[in-house]
Amino acid sequence: MRKIALLTLMLIALAEIAVGGIVARAATLDSGESDLLSQVNSFRASRGLSTLVVSDSLTLAAKWMATDMSVNNYFSHTSLDGRSPTQRMADAGYPAFSTWAGEDLAAGYTSAAQVLQGWINSPAHLAVLTNPAYRAIGIGRSYAAGSTYGWYWDADFGGIADGAALTSVASFDQGFHAAWAGQSANPTLAPGQTATLVVALKNNGYRGWYVGSPGQQANLGTANPLDVARPELGLTNRLATTTTSYVGPGQVGWFQFQIHAPSSPGTYRLDVRGVVDGATWLEDPGIFFLITVQ
């Protein structure tokens, strides 16, 4: 089942605002969101329209709404807390009440191409996509296995390419959290010997971890220094994903990986931390291993 929804809010600007030369700082988009951005801009370019720049504040609003719909299993332009799209954009830091603003929603589509085609096939959505007043866009998508439509998409459009960095981004809760739940013992190895290490993290957020789903797959990464390969141990910066395909809220996910002992004797420290690539690093409970090479 698939659905699309549209809300175009054409608010006349209180003052004429020049947008030439303003480039918004790129917000973090996952692969599907980036694909939709590229396709929307390609479609607009084919109509001789301007390219939409990514707005951090609009992306913040779009990601929040997509997540809220998927987690709470509803499909509406009015969020469960009673806010309109314009209010959500304004709350995220975008000047939505003083420029053109609009929102497109889609649900049930698994790819960006399907979302765009659904909007193109709808005259009302086509009018939004080809509106020359828009200069900025924010895109969000979210998946929930137990929801009616599975994938939920949100595209927020605005008439101003806001370039200011957001202070509210740091407080945006994307729903991914983890706590330490266990780990294997510190190994003692001979030079060249291999060993398997295990880390258990409890999903104490409100979003599930899905293997193979961009922006929702939980991985175990290197830490301290963060995100750095450890070739002396035969490791890249990503060590493992969960051994099960899904880890729901309240469940424990297990990460298993193999290390290779260096040729030089000594004690090697390996710090690790959970990460959902394309979304956020999980909490750092200070997990580490001491690898003794005799």
Q: Can you characterise this structure?
A:
The protein has 294 residues and is of the alpha+beta class. Strands 7, 10, 11, 14, 15 and 16 form a six-stranded mixed beta sheet that branches. Strands 1-3-5-4-2 form a five-stranded mixed beta sheet, sandwiched between helices. Strands 6-8-13 form a three-stranded antiparallel beta sheet, with no helix packed on it. The protein is elongated and about 70 Å long. It is built from five helices and 16 strands. Helix 1 (31-46) packs parallel to helix 4 (112-120) and helix 2 (56-72) packs across helix 3 (85-91).
> Which of globular, elongated, flat, extended, rod-shaped describes the shape?
elongated
- The low-confidence runs, each spanning 5 or more residues with pLDDT under 50, are 8-26, 164-171
Per DSSP, the total helix count is 5
Report the strand count: 16
Quaternary structure annotation: single chain
What about the largest sheet?
6 strands, mixed
**Strand content of the residues, in percent?**
25-35%
Summing up helix and strand content along with how strands pair, one would put the structural category as alpha+beta
* Rg (CA only): 22 Å
